[in-house]
Specification:
The chain has helices at about 35-40, 55-60, 100-105, 155-170, 205-210, 215-220, 280-285, 340-350, 355-360, 395-400, 420-435, 445-450, 470-480, 495-505, 515-525, and strands at about 20, 80-85, 115-120, 120-125, 130-135, 140-145, 180-185, 190-195, 235-240, 245-250, 270-275, 295, 315-320, 325-330, 365, 410-415, 440-445, 460-465, 530-540, 545-550, 555. By secondary structure, the protein is of the alpha+beta class. The strands form 5 sheets. Strands 12, 13, 14, 15, 16, 17, 18 and 19 form an 8-stranded mixed sheet that branches. Helix 8 (about 340-350) packs antiparallel against helix 10 (about 395-400), helix 9 runs antiparallel to helix 11 and helix 14 packs antiparallel against helix 15 (about 515-525).
């Protein structure tokens, strides 16, 4: 079996795929949490006029905690009984096609699995044993022959084909532009046919690492929206929409102990996810031990859980840089005022990222189109000429506005309905009003937002979180006009030059600082996108945790954590 490509650059920020972080009292030689010392976001340029200056990311993120190796943990054997985790939004739909709410990305990998996991832009086998390149357009993937789901059904090549068709037919098969077809070669081997040779970074992220594999029999006989039956280490035992989701560790998880992946363990018997919309209630929930983990604690309340804080006893804090990026996009459909580059730049120069980050309390301001979480982010972008993300300038905003046909009409800014997103959009609304641009806020839940964002009649400005396995992969989400099968990207842009410079930067041979910078410069020249901020993971956790485990740097995996047993 062949391996796959990965970055050669020697910068590792918080482990771009999997991060095991030692808790308040625990330690391990396998701990790799470098975020505290390496995730360094430069302060904005002197032209930024901020309502409140944030500290740099370097001073805000935590150093790796030290562990108490004298205490017994689940690493020595055994399971912890139960932990309760606070969520800010409801996943709404637990099916394999339920992508939409951010919380879905947190809960789904507990009960679903994919052929591979994406780690540092390499493909880590999970359901697959590995893969073989037959030729440029045909690759074979061999499954383990003993995979079973919750109902005891054996997963075969036919189930893989069924699962792929399920996602494709749902219309949610994002980034499938290399995918042509998949077929069963024998009982446990599938053959993928690609539309072109795999020549891009993370090209198979969605087909191989985001497509959940399930039994056709279980799917057709069950109700996966509320009670899915997957191959993951946990079963869904109760789901009350808008309230809570309870997961129970399987006694008969299919993979053998010696081959079991670190992020697919079940070190706690029961995981309960409580949906708590208001961040202030997360503080109360932690303080009263209603929940044992939350990454939604407002910045002003973090001190309550640190030394000498009112809830310090029995709690610890880990703060790190997330990988996602909150992006503002202007609707470039014909006839829209936002299709005018001068109007877009008027919007962008009016925004103060530090003020927005302060308003949310859980984000770090962006100073370029990206996040320092990724190794292929370059700090030189922050000082680029005409970088409106690092230089709020009210006078420039008004100058650009004067060059447009804007007549004071009210525009719609659309985004998610969670508290942080609404706080960010409210601050953006105030900043735009300050330069004479009127906007109204349209906040929607995750599922509806995913549908409406593809309808150009529903919004003028979109505030959307975007992610990926690398910086260039994150750009793909909103830049690549092959992403949605509509011929346009998320901003309804059809610019062949933009597509070309993106594809060059995303190619295996062209993924260089020079080409990445060329893309960034072209975006600035045309005022296409605006990065607002990245999540600052304010993780507060009870002292039952010996380690914390995250997938892709920010998606908490309770079952992969270690717990104290004494």
């Amino acid at each position: 079996m062949k391996g796959f490509f990965s970055f050669k650059k020697g910068v590792s920020i918080a482990l771009a795929a999997s991060m095991l972080v030692m808790g308040a009292c625990g330690s391990s030689d396998t701990s790799s949490a470098d975020a505290g010392s390496e995730a360094d976001t430069n302060s904005a340029s002197e032209t930024v006029e901020s309502t409140e200056t944030e500290e740099s990311a370097e001073s805000e993120v935590s150093q790796e905690p030290e562990a108490d190796t004298s205490r017994a943990t689940t690493a020595d054997g055994g399971q912890y009984d139960k932990v309760t985790v606070g969520l800010q939004d409801d996943p709404s739909d637990l099916s394999t096609t339920g992508f939409g709410a951010y919380s879905y990305m947190i809960v789904a990998p507990n009960f679903y699995e994919t052929l591979f996991d994406l780690r540092d832009n390499d493909y880590t086998p999970i359901l697959a044993k590995g893969y073989t390149e037959v030729d440029d357009l045909h690759w074979d993937v061999e499954l383990y022959d003993y995979i079973t789901d919750t109902n005891g059904n054996n997963i075969t090549a036919d189930d893989v084909v069924f699962s792929f068709n399920l996602l494709i037919d749902s219309g949610k098969a994002a980034r499938y532009d290399y995918f042509e077809s998949v077929e069963a070669v024998d009982t446990y081997t599938v053959r993928f046919t690609w539309s072109k040779p795999i020549d891009a970074i993370g090209a198979l992220e969605w087909p191989w690492c985001r497509t959940y594999i399930v039994s056709q029999k279980s799917y057709e006989e069950g109700n996966f929206t509320e009670a899915p039956a997957g191959t993951g280490p946990y079963d869904v035992t109760e789901y009350v929409v808008g309230s809570h989701l309870t997961l129970t560790a399987k006694d008969n998880y299919w993979q053998t102990d010696e081959l079991r992946d670190e992020l697919h363990k079940a070190n706690v018997k029961t995981i309960e996810y409580d949906v708590i919309a208001e961040t202030s209630q997360h503080v109360i929930g932690l303080g009263t031990d209603q929940i044992q983990y939350s990454q939604y604690v407002p910045a002003e309340n973090i001190a309550d859980f640190e030394e000498n804080g009112q809830y310090a006893d029995g709690h610890a804090v880990y703060i790190t840089q997330g990988s996602a990026l909150e992006v503002l996009m202007a609707n470039n459909s014909e006839g829209k005022i936002t299709a005018d580059p001068n109007f877009r730049k008027a919007i962008w120069y009016a925004i103060d990222n530090e003020a927005v980050a302060t308003a949310t309390g859980t984000y770090l301001a962006s100073y370029a189109l990206g996040t320092p979480f990724f190794a292929d982010y370059y700090e030189s972008w922050e000082s680029a000429e005409n970088n409106y993300m690092a230089s709020m300038d009210v006078d420039k905003a008004k100058e650009y506005l004067d060059q447009t046909a804007y007549a004071g009409e009210t525009l719609v800014i659309m985004g998610a309905s969670d508290e942080a997103s609404k706080s960010a959009m409210t601050m953006i609304q105030a900043l735009l009003t300050n330069v004479g641009i009127n906007v109204e806020i349209k906040a929607e839940d995750g599922v509806m937002l995913e549908e409406d964002m593809l309808d150009p009649t529903t919004w003028d400005i979109l505030y959307k979180d975007c992610g990926g396995g690398s910086q260039v992969g994150e750009w793909n989400r909103f830049t690549n006009y092959n992403e949605f099968g509509t011929g346009y990207n998320m901003s309804f842009i059809k610019d062949d030059t933009l597509q070309s410079v993106y594809e060059t930067a995303n190619s295996l041979d062209g993924h260089t600082e020079e080409n990445m910078t060329a893309f960034h410069d072209y975006v600035l020249e045309n005022g296409y996108y605006y990065a607002v901020c990245s999540p600052k993971i304010n993780a507060v956790y009870a002292d039952c945790f010996a380690t914390l485990a995250f997938a892709e740097g920010e998606f908490f995996r309770p079952g992969a954590c270690e717990f104290y047993l004494d």
